[in-house]
Design goal:
Strand content: 5-15%
Strand order of the largest sheet: 5-4-3-6-7
Number of helices: 26
Structural class: alpha/beta
Shape: elongated
Radius of gyration: 34 Å
C-alpha cells in the first residue's frame, strides 16, 4: 500500500525534506508579502463593493458617503497595523494573538482568541475562493451555475500547493499578487490620466440606471442614517481581515525576523489603503451603482446580471483598451483565490501551537514530508469546502459570517499588549526604554479603542444577518479544545510513573503464551517456533489454541499435530455458532480472571501480501481479534508475519555489482542476503536458493 500511494504522493507533493533543511524554507520580505498579506491586499477587491452595496439600500442619495466610510476604514487599518508592529517585536515566536492573550490575560482568553482565529481562517478560505470565482464569472458569464464546483476545485489545488511547502507556494503565488497590485495601481493611474489629462468621461455599465431605495429605507435621517453608516462601516472593515496573519507567521521570516515582519506589515498597510481609496474614487468617478437586487435598478434590462464593482470600473476605465480589462479580471480572480493562502499559512501554525499545548490533536503538531504542517492544511481545506457547499459558493452570504472572529482576536490582543507594557514598566528603570514602552502602550491603547468600537458595530449590525453562526462556531471550538485538553491531562496523569514502586512496575508472576492456530502450515510453524524461543521455561506456559467451527477440519488438524509430534499442547474451543473471535476473547479473559497478576501473550500468524486487493482476502479474522484483545487488560498481542511471494516481488532488490566482481566470478551478495532474509536457508527452499546462487555464479564466471 505504501508503494502504491508513494509514487503519486512524490509526484504531487515532491520529495521529502530532512529536518536540517528547515532553514531553506524561510521567506525573504519579497516572498513573505504575497504569502502573508495576500488576504489583506485582496480584500480591497470586495471591501469597496460591500460599502457601495450597504449604502445602496437608501438609494442614490447616500453614495457620496462612501468617501467618508472608506477613509475611516483606512484610518482604522493604519492604527491596527501600528499596533501589530508592537506585537511582532514583543512576541516573535509565532503564537501571535493567541500567545499574547494567553501570557497576559490567561488560558481562557487565549482559547477565545484561538477559537476566533480558527473560524476566521476557515471563512477566509471560503470567502476568498468564492469571491474570486464571482469575479471570474463576471468576466466569463458562461461559467454561471458552476460556482460551487469551481470553488471546491480551487480549494483542493491550494491545499496541494501548500502541501509542497511554504516557500514553494509563496514563490508560485508571488507573481499573481504583485500582478494584482500593479494592475490596481495602473488602473487608478490610467483613470487619473484620462480624467485629469484628457477630460474623458468614463461610465460604468450601471451608471445609466437609476438606483432607488429599498422599501422603508427612503429619506433616512437621524438614528436610521447613523445605523446605516455603521452597517456600511462594518461591511467595509472586511478590508482589515488578514492583518493578524503576519504576527502569527513571524517564524517563517528570515532573520532579523521581527524587523522583517514589521516592515512587511507596513508595506501591506500602505498598499492596501492606496488601492482601496483608489477603487472608491473610481467608483464615484464612473457613476457605479451596486444594488442588493435588480428591483432597485430602474432602467436595467430584463435578466440583467450585475457584475462586480471592480469589473464594472475596469471596463469603464479600459473602454479603449480591452486587454487591460481582461488583465484586471484575471489578476483579481487570482488574488482573491490566492488570498486563501494566508489562511493556509496561518491556520496550520496556530494548530501546531495549540496541539503542542494539548488543546488540539497531536497530529497537528508534526510536520509533513515537505516540512509543512500537512494535517492542519488538510483539515482547513476540508472544513472550508463544507462551508462553500453549504452556502452555495455565495460570497455575499458567507461574508456576513466574516470579520467577527478577527475583531475578537484584535481586541484580546490589544488588551494583552497593554497589560504586557504595564507589567514591564513596573520593573524598567532606564528612561529611554520606558519612553519607548509608554509610546507602545499608547499605540496599543488607541488600537484597542478602535477595534472595540468596530466589534460593537459589527455585532450590532451583522449578528442577525448571519454573524451568529460565527459566534456559535467560536463557542463550539472553545468547548472542543477544553475537552481535548482535559482528555490529554487525564491520560498523562494516568500514565505518569510514580516515584514509589506502583503495582504497574511489578513483574507479572507468570506469562501465559497462546498461539492461535487455524491450519498447520508454514505461518503457524513459524509462530510456534517464535513463541518457544521467546518463552521462559520457569515463569511461563505455552499452548496452542484453535476454534472448532468444522468437526472434519478439527479432526484433521489433531491428526496432523500428532503425526508431526509437536510437543506444544493443542487446546480446542468448541464454537456451535461458528464464531471465532468471541471464543478466543472469552478464553483469554478467563485466564486473566484466574490469575489477575499474570500476563497473557497471544501470538497471531499473519500473511504479508504485496497488492492492495489481497488485503481484502487475508487477515480479516486477525484484525478483528486484535481489535477486541486491545481492550482487554493484561493481554499482549504479537503479530508473526509470513511474507507471501507477491510481497517478495514487490521488494525485489536492485541488481548491483562491485567493481571487478564479475571478473572475479564472486556470487551476487545481494541475492544471497535476500535469500537468507526470506528464510530459505533450510529444507527445500534452501536447496532452491543455493541452486539459484550457483547458477548465477556460473553465469557470471562464463561472462
Amino acid at each position: 500500500m505504501s508503494k502504491l500511494t508513494g509514487l503519486p504522493k512524490r509526484i504531487l507533493i515532491g520529495r521529502a525534506l530532512q529536518n536540517d533543511r528547515l532553514g531553506e524554507t524561510l521567506l525573504p520580505k519579497r516572498i513573505a508579502l504575497p504569502v502573508f498579506a495576500s488576504d489583506a491586499l485582496s480584500s480591497v477587491a470586495y471591501a469597496p463593493e460591500q460599502i457601495f452595496l450597504a449604502l445602496s439600500v437608501a438609494g442614490i442619495s447616500t453614495i457620496h458617503y462612501s468617501w467618508w466610510v472608506g477613509g475611516v476604514v483606512a484610518l482604522v487599518m493604519l492604527v491596527v497595523v501600528a499596533s501589530y508592529r508592537q506585537n511582532v517585536h514583543a512576541y516573535p515566536s509565532g503564537g501571535g494573538d493567541y500567545e499574547v492573550a494567553t501570557v497576559n490575560l490567561g488560558g481562557n482568553a487565549g482559547l477565545t482568541v484561538a477559537a476566533a482565529l480558527m473560524v476566521d481562517y476557515v471563512l477566509t478560505v471560503a470567502v476568498s475562493t468564492t469571491s474570486g470565482v464571482a469575479n471570474l464569472v463576471s468576466a466569463v458569464p458562461s461559467l454561471h451555475g458552476h460556482e460551487v464546483a469551481i470553488s471546491v476545485t480551487l480549494v483542493v489545488l491550494l491545499m496541494g500547493m501548500n502541501l509542497r511547502g511554504v516557500r514553494e507556494s509563496g514563490t508560485a503565488f508571488a507573481i499573481p499578487t504583485y500582478g494584482f497590485m500593479i494592475g490596481i495601481l495602473g488602473l487608478t493611474g490610467y483613470a487619473a490620466i484620462r480624467h485629469f489629462g484628457f477630460g474623458t468621461n468614463m461610465h460604468a455599465a450601471s451608471s445609466g440606471f437609476h438606483l432607488v431605495a429599498e422599501p422603508g429605507h427612503s429619506n433616512l435621517a437621524g438614528l436610521a442614517m447613523v445605523f446605516l453608516l455603521l452597517k456600511t462601516f462594518s461591511s467595509g472593515c472586511a478590508a482589515l481581515t488578514g492583518v493578524e496573519a503576519i504576527s502569527n507567521g513571524v517564524p517563517a521570516f528570515r532573520k532579523p525576523k521581527s524587523k522583517n515582519a514589521a516592515t512587511t506589515l507596513l508595506m501591506m498597510a500602505v498598499m492596501a489603503v492606496i488601492m482601496m481609496m483608489g477603487i472608491i474614487w473610481m467608483g464615484n468617478l464612473t457613476g457605479l451603482k451596486m444594488a442588493g437586487s435588480n428591483s432597485q435598478l430602474l432602467g436595467a434590462p430584463s435578466g440583467y446580471q450585475q457584475k462586480t464593482a471592480l469589473a464594472q470600473i475596469s471596463q469603464a476605465v479600459f473602454s479603449n483598451f480591452t486587454p487591460g480589462f481582461y488583465f484586471i479580471a484575471a489578476v483579481t480572480g487570482l488574488i482573491l483565490v490566492l488570498a486563501a493562502n494566508t489562511a493556509f499559512n496561518g491556520f496550520p501554525v496556530l494548530g501546531s501551537i495549540l496541539a503542542q499545548d494539548r488543546y488540539l490533536p497531536r497530529q497537528l503538531h508534526t510536520r509533513g514530508d515537505r516540512l509543512a504542517f500537512s494535517n492542519g492544511i488538510i483539515a482547513l481545506a476540508a472544513v472550508a469546502i463544507v462551508f462553500i457547499i453549504g452556502y452555495g459558493a455565495n460570497p455575499d452570504r458567507l461574508i456576513q459570517l466574516y470579520i467577527i472572529g478577527v475583531f475578537v482576536s484584535f481586541n484580546m490582543s490589544q488588551t494583552g499588549m497593554i497589560r504586557h507594557w504595564t507589567r514591564l514598566l513596573k520593573t524598567e528603570t532606564d528612561p529611554a526604554v520606558r519612553r519607548r514602552m509608554m509610546r507602545s502602550r499608547v499605540i496599543n491603547s488607541i488600537g484597542l479603542t478602535c477595534t472595540a468600537c468596530v466589534l460593537v458595530v459589527v455585532l450590532s449590525t451583522k449578528f442577525l444577518a448571519g454573524a451568529w453562526m460565527s459566534c456559535l462556531l467560536m463557542v463550539v471550538f472553545f468547548i472542543l479544545m477544553k475537552a481535548i485538553r482535559k482528555h490529554y491531562d487525564r491520560v498523562s496523569a494516568e500514565l505518569a510513573a510514580a516515584e514509589e514502586r506502583p503495582d504497574e512496575a511489578l513483574l507479572p508472576s507468570r506469562v501465559h503464551s497462546v498461539v492461535l492456530v487455524s491450519k498447520l502450515h508454514k505461518p503457524t510453524l513459524r509462530a510456534l517456533a517464535y513463541a518457544q524461543l521467546s518463552r521462559s521455561a520457569k515463569t511461563s506456559t505455552l499452548e496452542a489454541l484453535t476454534v472448532s467451527v468444522d468437526q472434519g477440519d478439527t479432526a484433521a488438524l489433531r491428526a496432523d499435530w500428532e503425526r508431526r509430534g509437536i510437543e506444544i499442547p493443542l487446546k480446542v474451543l468448541d464454537s456451535p455458532y461458528r464464531e471465532v473471535t468471541r471464543p478466543v476473547v472469552e478464553y483469554v479473559r478467563n485466564l486473566r480472571r484466574t490469575s489477575p497478576r499474570d500476563v497473557v501473550t497471544v501470538y497471531i500468524p499473519e500473511y504479508v501480501v504485496g497488492h492492495w486487493y489481497e488485503h481484502l482476502l487475508h487477515n480479516q479474522s486477525a484484525l478483528r481479534l486484535k481489535g477486541r484483545l486491545l481492550f482487554t487488560p493484561g493481554v499482549m498481542v504479537t503479530s508473526v508475519p509470513w511474507q507471501l511471494e507477491s510481497s517478495e516481488r514487490r521488494r525485489k532488490p536492485v541488481e548491483w555489482s562491485a567493481p571487478g566482481q564479475i571478473r572475479r566470478g564472486s556470487p551476487n551478495r545481494l541475492q544471497n542476503r535476500d535469500a537468507h532474509r526470506a528464510g530459505r536457508g533450510v529444507g527445500q527452499d534452501s536447496g532452491q536458493s543455493t541452486s539459484q546462487s550457483t547458477s548465477q555464479s556460473s553465469k557470471d564466471s562464463n561472462e
